[in-house]
Amino acid sequence: KLDDIKVQYHPHSGRDQQVHRFSDYKRDQASHKPPPARDREPWQPFCSRLDFKIAELALHASLNKDETNRLINLVHRAAGGREPFSLTSYKEVSETWSRSSHCFTAFKQTVISVPYRKEEHCFDVHFRPLWDW
Hints:
Elements: E1 5-7, E2 18-20, H1 49-60, H2 65-79, H3 90-100, E3 108-116, E4 119-127
Antiparallel strand pairs: 1-2, 3-4
């Protein structure tokens, strides 16, 4: 019949096929359950909503164990007032990185020619001069 579940075993198992009637699974049983009580602390088992939000951020950002530990350490440092934290947005972070870029050795580009099988092959190479560090 339509919607029945047929279980067919591997021939070497020696088991006969089985047919289960869909109606045997009592699909309407779940509708009689009362709705779950509204949880006042849906972030459980985390100790606080903030703990959950930080763990959720680490999960969505696909942070590994070391990166997650670094994030948690930074949050504790900021929350403890040991160090000021003033960044407020992605834009501010990006602008700050741009302003600090002059502190780093810039990349240079050159072309390297290599003879190979009687032909000259040219490659663009980007590098940071070691002596400029």
